[in-house]
Amino acid sequence: MESVMLGKSEAIRSIVLTLLAGEHLLLEDVPGVGKTLAAKALAGSIDTDFNRIQFTPDLLPSDITGSSIYRSDEKKFQFTPGPIFANVVLADEINRAPPRTQSALLEAMSDGQVSVDGKTYELPKPFIVVATQNPYEFEGTYVLPESQMDRFLMRTSIGYPEPESERKVLQSHRDGEPVDSIKNVVGTDDILQAQAAVRRVRFDESLEDYLLQIVHATRTSGDFRLGVSTRAALSFYRGCQARAITENRDYVIPDDIKSLATSVLSHRVLVDDFASQSSRQVVEDLITRLLQSIPVPV
User: Fold this and answer.
1) Which residues contact 152 (CB under 8 A, 6 or more apart)?
2) Domain 8-174, second-level architecture
3) pLDDT tens across 262-271, in order?
């Protein structure tokens, strides 16, 4: 991935961490900085199936999950899987589809399955949704509901590249698309084994208390109208374990919790002022201030 996403080591780390945690990622940034490329690079580096869903106002839930079609020759309905049936799914410009369509992702992201016409269909494993949205464009978009936001482990940005990295991007496109040259480095079995290893990472009880203090503080702080859910606490917990693995450790340390708190919690809390809610920086600053008020275990 680094050969394609030049100078974006932090973004790559967030993507890999999310995959290892068995969770989903929201990439929020301006157009043209590589959000779609990031998902393609992830899929290209793993021997997996990849599907892209372009979210639009006229997209239907069945366009995502699939539908049952009547086969007259067999005189029965046959289920045709939708694009959600892939290991890596890019939900491009997710906020351009209405809430009813966005809701088609809820069961898939939380349970790894979809229900159509009363029947349940398992999704392939591993399964990760990488969703993108432009936070600066509001016309023709819909605010993602809290239930949807709560299913993303992290919200992160890619950002503009440094001048020298951008020069390398220009040079790398001389002979075609660099993403097309990415080689598979791991298979699905490797990812599943890594995800199992993440769940075995040791989490000291004092650090569990520290994590829970942070979670509970979002619910009692006067800065937030709505704190984070128990699902968020579980995602936070799993994310810390995954970060430990990426640091070649089999145990969690306080830095794992502190480094992930902002990106894991900021999109899940609500503040009273709409202007502040729409400003990502304001919400992240509130999370940072909350962290500073809670003593770190030694």
Assistant:
1) 23, 24, 25, 26, 131, 267
2) 3-Layer(aba) Sandwich (3.40)
3) 999 999 998 8
